[in-house]
Design a protein that fits this description.
7 helices, 238 residues, mainly alpha, elongated
């Protein structure tokens, strides 16, 4: 298999893995995130710990997409490619804070004993921290990194069909603006307006993962460096 096809397939698989791990993590976290009295109840600690593992996989896959694609994307705009890597790292940093907040609730439940009721406000505050990290990471930074920057790079390079890349260019900023709207209380993060604003970004990331996995990169346009190299080689041949 050609090196560029291996790179595309690896990136595509990593993108699909981000979807699977993110969905699994959210589903496994549900008892803790939806029950305000989780600390004083029977708990589902093993399930929550498995959710944390899923989010650790998500972090690895997120950074993996940026690391794998960077050598290809930098040929078309090194500034945007570095920005994409930085956005992925920032997203993962926020996810990590969310993981720590959830794990702290588990520790409180396991150690509080008969005093669990006294720590309920602390547990609820930690769950709120997780909610804010989800809004600012997957709800805002992703729109800038995976949406705007990666969409621009793919649109400029022709590595994927341009209509597909437009979903990132349009959906990314829309998702980030929606995150700001949620921040100021315009509507809830689980509301219909938020879901509609997030949909183009979801379509972009899902289609990108599938396309790279099963099709690979399209033949890229020549960059300025490539054209200069072609001119030099022709001059030397003459």
């Amino acid at each position: 298999m050609h090196a560029s096809n291996r790179t595309a397939r690896t990136a595509g698989i990593l993108f699909l893995l981000t979807f699977a791990s993110a969905i699994a993590g959210a589903a496994l976290y549900a008892p803790l995130l939806t029950d305000p009295d989780y600390l004083a109840g029977p708990g589902a600690d093993t399930r929550i710990l498995l959710g944390a593992v899923c989010e650790l996989v998500l972090i690895v896959a997120n950074i993996g997409t940026a690391v794998v694609l960077f050598p290809v994307l930098r040929r078309h705009s090194e500034t945007a490619a570095v920005g994409y890597v930085a956005a992925r790292i920032m997203e993962c940093a926020l996810i990590s804070v969310g993981i720590l907040s959830v794990l702290t609730v588990v520790t409180l439940r396991q150690t509080a004993g008969a005093d669990a009721g006294e720590y309920l406000p602390v547990a609820r505050a930690l769950v709120a921290v997780h909610g804010w990290t989800f809004l600012l990471g997957p709800g805002f930074v992703v729109g800038i990194g995976n949406g705007l920057l990666l969409g621009f790079l793919m649109y400029r390079s022709h590595l994927v069909p341009r209509p597909m890349a437009l979903f990132g260019l349009i959906g990314g900023p829309l998702m980030s603006l929606s995150g700001i709207a949620v921040l100021f209380g315009a509507y809830g993060q689980s509301s219909v307006p938020s879901a509609l604003a997030t949909l183009p970004e979801i379509i972009w990331e899902a289609s990108l993962g599938i396309y790279l996995t099963f099709v690979g990169f399209r033949r890229p346009r020549n960059t300025g460096a490539d054209l200069a190299a072609d001119v030099d080689s022709k001059q030397q041949a003459a």
